[in-house]
Amino acid sequence: MSAQDNTFHGWVCNGKGQPLEWRELSLKKFEDDDLEIDVTHCGICGSDIHTLDSGWGSTNYPCVVGHEIVGVVTKLGKNVTEFKVGDRVGIGAQCDSCGECHECKNGHENICRTGMTTTYDGRWKCGDKTYGGYADKWRGNKNFVFKIPDDMSNELASTFFCAGVTTYWPLKNHGVNEQSHIGVIGLGGLGHFTVMWAKAMGAKVTVFSSSDRKREDAFVLGADDYVVSSDSEAVLARDRQLSHLVCTSFGNNFDWLQFLSMLEPNGVFIMAANPETPLSNIPAGILLMRQISIVGTAIGSPKTIRKMLEFAAEKNVKPWIEKYPMEKVVDAIQDLRDNKARYRYVLQRN
Ligand SMILES: [Zn+2]
Ligand SMILES: [Zn+2]
Q: Cα(48) to centroid of ligand 1, in Å?
């Protein structure tokens, strides 16, 4: 194997606030359970920006982000029989887990007790760093790699691996069905997926957004109702309507009481956003009196990801994406920071 076979090129961030630079880094050690892909697409997730910015704590630079990775298999380790060269596959936000804890043994690898190995800014068991998909190649463990359904394009498939599963799993996990009425806070990458999943599961959907700008999109996506969050009269009129409220966007002045008041008794508030500061000012009274649960959600297990892909293919769930050439990553990130995405950006390699 030549030296070049063990390196890749990616958009590297060398430190907080520093510009991305396209350069060469080492791939992880090639192990028997590994496979390697040529990246064709990578979605851009809000997590990428939090990590580039060290917003969730110090990032271990140099870092290559991107965890909605899709590509074509080019190389297989000795133990990899599930895939063949040429298969179209994807990788999400988790690339490994301990494999030995109670959760891993019971198909809940996403909540592994030793913590999931994140697809970037993490470390493989062998000690090598994990690098994401703003890159030409990706190499890693087969257990967190997924075949893309035949009738799904690579560009659309990419966004399912983080945004898709992050919103599909909590709805499944909390029993959403035809009787449910789902409130979706924020119509971005996660929010627009939540609307489509909830509709595909037969639920009713109300979208809450900070302005009127996305009203039309919300209805095209399938929403039944749209509320501008600052319109307190409109909010009041929806008292106790919702069975579940999925929070995909959490601003500084989040009005807990306002949102919780729209949940019916035994309602579930699902936190799918991960703000950089702790939650505060949650009123206990309404939680008690209505037996409301506030729950977290963490992507989804490998089994869930496979089921999601099947369900998406069956129900024809198609995310709204906008493509950028991989070279234009800096523009894409800026446009995401400026809140221009409708609703997910995907980097494409030529
Ligand atoms: Zn993500
Ligand atoms: Zn584990």
A: 7
How far away, in angstroms, is 95 Cα from ligand 1 center? 13
Where would I find the H helices in the chain?
46-52, 102-105, 154-158, 163-173, 189-200, 215-221, 232-236, 256-260, 284-290, 302-315, 329-337
Q: 143 C-alpha vs ligand 2 centroid, how far in Å? A: 13
pLDDT tens per residue across span 96-120: 999 999 999 999 999 999 999 999 9
pLDDT tens digits for range 1-24: 666 799 999 999 999 999 999 999
pLDDT per position as a tens digit, 274-325: 998 899 999 999 999 999 999 999 999 999 999 999 999 999 999 999 999 9
Q: Which ligand is the nearest neighbour of the Cα of 117?
A: 2
Q: Any idea which fold 164-296 has?
A: Rossmann fold (3.40.50)
46 alpha carbon – ligand 1 mean position (Å): 6
243: three-class secondary structure by DSSP: strand
Could you tell me the distance, in angstroms and rounded to a whole number, from the CA of residue 273 to the centre of ligand 2? 23
User: Which ligand sits nearest to residue 45's alpha carbon?
Assistant: 1
Domain boundaries, the chain: 3-162+300-348, 164-296
Q: Looking up tokens 């950089």, which residue turns up?
A: 276
Which fold is adopted by the domain 3-162+300-348? Quinone Oxidoreductase; Chain A, domain 1 (3.90.180)
Å from CA of 33 to ligand 2 middle? 17
CA nearest 45: which of 28, 73, 65? 65
Torsion of CA 245, 251, 253, 254, to 10 degrees: 10
Instruction: Indicate which ligand has the atom closest to the C-alpha of 120.
Output: 1
* 204-214 per-residue burial string, b: 16 or more CB within 10 A, e: under 16: bbbbbbeeeeb
